[in-house]
Amino acid sequence: MRRSKMEMYIDILKVLAQHGPLKLTHVMYKANVNCSVLKENLDFLIAQNLIEEKVTVKRRNKTKISYAITDKGRTVIRYFNEVNVALHITDEKPIPALIY
Question: What is the pTM of this model?
Answer without folding.
Answer: 0.82
